[in-house]
Design goal:
Number of strands: 14
Strand order of the largest sheet: 1-6-8-7-9-12-10-11
CATH superfamily: Zn-dependent exopeptidases
Order of helices and strands: EEEEEEEHHHEHHEEHEHEEEHH
CATH architecture: 3-Layer(aba) Sandwich
CATH topology: Aminopeptidase
CATH class: Alpha Beta
Distance between the termini: 36 Å
Number of helices: 9
Structural class: alpha/beta
Largest sheet: 8 strands, mixed
Strand content: 15-25%
Helix content: 25-40%
Length: about 350
């Protein structure tokens, strides 16, 4: 049985304390807020520093799923934050793009490629909402001020490279550079999405990592993504794009033996593999990779041309082969990367 998003938070009728940290371009700060669900679709937010209450309407439907193993036997956790394909009505009403154009920003079918993780003793967390609506692989408030009617608060990071490219927490454009929204949004809409989707997702991910640390003394997060074939660098004479890029933040988010093990397995399956260029790992890898504390994180980017038709956003004939290889990868990693090995691996 899947563990369903907000139903697992037990917040309705009970105040829940959050520490919301915003890592801006010039350092980090924190805002302490208290949130409580007054009814299934109404979230009250109290800024404890200013004593102000605001009410945000949130969608009470599930926003993510955790697929747990029948028996947890591995400290590995698989995460698919960009494969969500349930497009909210309010997004479709506010965009001038057709559904297929929106979907080209998805890491389509990646959750299915790694769906066998629970069979090998490791959980899989996957978003149901699309990254075009909210991107959990960003800071909580990494926003483009040109997208909003209001002047954005000081805690919002408006100067990151991701914001400049149009890919903030709420994206301005899809992968091909087309603008998503017909008109500007109120900042309250960003707050609503962050409260309803971003924080529950990260709470779930943090809970899985904490559970792994408690059970095994270590944790290894495998952050699963795909990349457009046009963006894959070429390293061969035939100029074919690389198949897979491993991102470990240049060796800072996980121990070297872990990255080496993953790379060796993938190369043994016949894939061209490089590390950190041009994808070294995003916010999730950077935030949760703490090798000195026994918590490691590595990002996997798979070339979409290997398993899907990128124009039609459909599975190709190569899908079954790649899925089997990822299942084999999961099995071998869960066997080789024992708690003892992970604990001994330092960056």
């Amino acid at each position: 049985m899947a563990w369903i998003g907000k139903q697992a938070l037990n917040v309705r009728g009970f105040p829940v304390d959050f520490i919301l940290c915003y890592k801006g371009y010039n350092g980090s700060g924190a805002a302490r807020m208290e949130m409580s669900m007054d009814r299934a679709d109404l979230l009250t937010v109290t800024d404890l520093g200013r004593g102000k209450d605001r009410q945000l309407h949130v969608d009470a439907s599930p926003s993510f799923r955790i697929l747990p193993p029948a028996l947890r036997t591995s400290p590995l956790i698989f995460n698919s934050p960009h494969s969500g394909s349930e497009y909210p009505d309010d997004l479709m009403a506010s965009t001038g793009l057709d559904p297929t154009s929106l979907r080209r920003s998805e890491d389509s079918f990646v959750d299915q490629l790694f769906a066998d993780a629970p069979l090998h003793g490791a959980p899989l967390l996957k978003a149901l909402f699309p990254r075009a609506y909210l991107d959990v692989n960003r800071e909580a408030f990494e926003l483009d001020p040109l997208m909003f009617e209001d002047t954005l608060p000081d805690h919002v990071n408006t100067r990151s490279l991701r914001v400049a490219a149009g890919f903030g927490t709420i994206a301005r454009v899809v992968a091909e550079g087309m603008a998503i929204y017909r008109k500007k949004l109120p900042f309250s809409e960003a707050e609503r999405r962050v409260a309803a989707l971003y924080h529950p997702y990260h709470n779930a991910l943090s809970g899985l990592l904490s559970g792994s640390l408690q059970q095994f003394g270590c944790a290894l997060l495998i952050d699963c993504h795909s990349m457009p074939s046009a963006g894959a660098p070429s390293i061969s004479a035939d100029r074919r794009g690389v198949d897979i890029i491993l991102g470990d933040r240049y060796g800072t988010s996980c121990g070297p033996l872990i990255s080496q093990t993953i790379e060796e397995i993938l190369r043994g399956q016949g894939y061209q593999v490089v590390r950190n260029s041009p994808y070294a790992g995003g916010y999730i890898t950077d935030c949760y990779g703490r090798p000195g504390h026994g918590q490691h994180a590595v990002q996997i980017e798979i070339n979409r041309a290997l398993y899907m038709d990128e124009t039609q956003v459909t599975r190709s004939d190569g899908f079954a082969r790649v899925k089997q290889h990822m299942s084999d990868l999961i099995f071998v990693l869960c066997q080789r990367l024992t708690p003892e090995l992970i604990i001994s691996s330092k960056s």
